[in-house]
Design brief:
By secondary structure, the chain is an alpha/beta fold. It has two domains: 2-216 and 327-334, P-loop containing nucleotide triphosphate hydrolases (Rossmann fold), CATH 3.40.50; 221-280, Alpha-Beta Plaits, CATH 3.30.70. 31% of the residues lie in helices and 24% in strands. The chain contains eleven helices and 13 strands. It has a six-stranded mixed beta sheet, sandwiched between helices. Strand 8 (196-201) and strand 9 form a beta hairpin. Helix 3 crosses helix 4 (106-115) and helix 4 (106-115) packs across helix 5. The longest helix is centred in the middle third of the chain and has 16 residues, at 160-175. It is elongated, with a radius of gyration of 24 Å. The protein starts with a strand and ends in a 46-residue tail after the last helix. 39% of the residues are buried.
């Protein structure tokens, strides 16, 4: 289990993490989301004692990381995919770590097999592609068979097969009762991987909840209608007070009425319906709405974000400060 309490980090005048508190529990995958520069990597580094907090504490299984007797056996982390000597082979990199933490040599072969690097284990790691480097980083995190795992952007550089493999691996690790904490910018992929979320913006907690509860905060609540009577249906929707648009495929997307109300309207007006489907907001929709005020760098003319209504379970970040900073073989597409 990971616990952060009142975590704050300043770099001079810059407030990177601001009084952040959350818990990451075992048995589920917890996603760590936030815009660029929101403090995710800084927070993970403080958990791993690579950065000292200005104030507040982080605990891993009830202890600060620095007090763990055998850190690699209790906590595994992938924070930097290139955290290895480029002249060493993957096998030698893992062998060095295994010896320093009294881990059996046989475990090296096990983790290399898990991540699909057995065939290239004795090649220089400096020649690995980004995807292969990510796999080596995952193998390093798994080496001590720890109960707590942290992954910062673990699927960067992986091809679609590798992303799918990583998704199932993370879920399998959590199903074994481990604590799995994962940051990612691929929001839709996180919706398939994570069970719970910790969402931050400008170093401040926005939400700590389940994926389904977070997604439900999206204001998108529309209904898709397929009908051969488009013009008549549009007029009926307008009369009923709904807002509606005709999409390029000829379907109608309406807001302001529920699917049930639209179905009753069609029955009353004797309108033909081929499809009536509620459209719900995605995790990406909810994320864009609820982190809108926390985005540090926004391209000019961007209009894809919508600010949504808040909820009693969510808190908006302050804008008063500025932020810092299964098994598988290796897929040939990930090789150079």
């Amino acid at each position: 289990m990971i616990v952060a309490r009142g975590l704050t980090k300043r770099y001079g005048r810059t407030l990177a993490v601001d009084n952040l508190s959350f818990e990451v529990t075992p048995g589920v995958v917890t996603g760590f989301l936030g815009p660029n520069g929101s403090g995710k990597s800084t927070t993970m580094r403080m958990i791993m004692a690579l950065d000292n907090p200005t104030s507040g504490t982080t605990l891993v299984n009830g202890k600060p990381y620095a007090e763990l007797a055998w850190p690699l056996r209790e906590v595994g982390a992938l924070l930097d995919a290139k955290a290895y000597h480029p002249a060493r082979s993957a096998y030698d990199h893992l062998l060095f770590l295994a010896r320093s933490n009294d881990i059996a040599r046989s475990r090296i072969d096990e983790v290399l097999d898990i991540v699909g690097l057995t065939e290239v284990a004795h090649q220089r790691a400096g020649k690995y592609s980004l995807g292969m480097g990510q796999r080596l980083g995952i193998a390093t995190a798994l080496l001590g068979d720890p109960g707590v795992l942290l992954f910062d952007e673990p699927i960067n550089g992986l091809d679609p097969e590798g992303i799918r493999w990583a998704r199932f691996l993370l879920r399998d690790l959590a199903a074994e009762g481990r604590t799995v904490f994962v940051s990612s910018h691929l929001i839709n992929e996180m919706s398939l991987t994570a069970d719970r979320l910790v969402v931050i913006g400008r170093g401040t907690l926005i939400a700590e909840t389940s994926v389904s509860e977070f997604t439900s905060q999206s204001v998108l609540d529309a209904v898709r209608i397929v009908t051969p009577m488009t013009d008549i249906f549009m007029a009926a929707l307008c009369d009923a007070g709904a807002a509606a648009t005709v999409e390029t495929d000829g379907s109608i997307v309406a807001t302001g009425l529920s699917a049930a109300q639209i179905g009753e309207l069609a029955a009353d007006r004797i309108l033909t319906l081929h499809e009536l489907s509620p459209l719900r907001g995605s995790l990406e929709d909810a994320f864009m709405e609820l982190t809108h005020d926390a985005v540090e760098f926004r391209a000019g003319g961007a209009s894809g974000s919508r600010t949504g209504a808040g909820s009693s379970t969510l808190t908006r970040p302050s804008t008063r400060h500025h932020d810092a900073h299964s098994r598988t073989r290796t897929n040939p597409k990930e090789r150079r």
